[in-house]
Amino acid sequence: MAIKVVCAILEQHGRILVTQRSQHMPQPLLWEFPGGKVEPGETEEESLVREIKEEINLVVRPITRLTPVVHRYSDKEIMLIPYTCRYLSGVVQLAEHRSYQWAEPSDLMKYTWCPADVPIVEEYLLHSSAI
Ligand SMILES: Nc1nc2c([nH]c(=O)n2[C@H]2C[C@H](O)[C@@H](COP(=O)(O)OP(=O)(O)OP(=O)(O)O)O2)c(=O)[nH]1
């Protein structure tokens, strides 16, 4: 069964937070939206709030659930569940990632994404340009 992973599309002042996985993580050096696995007993929103606090030290509020993507990597299958999120408080401090950037929407397609993220970036761009 697919492992559920939630990720945050965090918007602030028209930019989106993107994080680069470290050399020592699965999918090394690829870009992703911060997040992580949903633990037993947690709602998706609870895991997302917890992961974002643990990984980048921000407090966020999940707003809209976009379309989940099921992707098979060589060793596992994940269901990546994206939420747009609003920034509430905190200053970015990376616990695990190699780097981060606040990206312009028009630059999002330039990153080397984890493969599971590509349809999510595409949907997000469609959704945001429709506003
Ligand atoms: N957080 C996050 N993970 C993603 C994204 N896209 C994507 O393919 N992934 C993958 C990478 C990991 O294999 C898995 C997320 O699990 P995780 O971030 O907790 O990874 P982990 O270091 O605990 O991995 P593991 O060795 O325990 O499997 O999902 C994304 O946008 N955000």
Search tags:
globular, 131 residues, eight-stranded mixed β-sheet, binds 8-OXO-2'-deoxyguanosine-5'-triphosphate, 2 helices, 8 strands, alpha+beta
End-to-end distance: 35 Å
Large-scale geometry: globular
The percent range for helix content is 10-25%
Helix-strand pattern: EEEEHEEEEH
Q: Radius of gyration from the CA trace?
A: 14 Å
Oligomer: single chain
Ligands, ions, cofactors:
8-OXO-2'-deoxyguanosine-5'-triphosphate
Protein name: 8-oxo-dGTP diphosphatase
Catalytic activity: 8-oxo-dGTP + H2O = 8-oxo-dGMP + diphosphate + H(+); 8-oxo-GTP + H2O = 8-oxo-GMP + diphosphate + H(+)
Organism: Pontibacter ruber
Domain Nudix hydrolase: 1-127
Written account of the structure:
The chain is α+β, with helices and mostly antiparallel strands and 131 residues long. 19% of the residues lie in helices and 38% in strands. The chain is built from two helices and eight strands. The protein has helices at 44-56, 118-129, and strands spanning 3-12, 15-20, 31-32, 35-37, 59-65, 69-72, 77-89, 99-103. Strands 1, 2, 3, 4, 5, 6, 7 and 8 form an eight-stranded mixed β-sheet that branches. A hairpin with a 2-residue loop joins strand 1 and strand 2 (15-20). The radius of gyration is 14 Å and the shape is globular. The termini are far apart. The relative contact order is 0.27. The site of 8-OXO-2'-deoxyguanosine-5'-triphosphate has 16 residues, from strand 1, strand 4 and strand 7. Residues 5, 7, 25-27, 32-37, 78, 80, 114, 116-117 line the site of 8-OXO-2'-deoxyguanosine-5'-triphosphate.
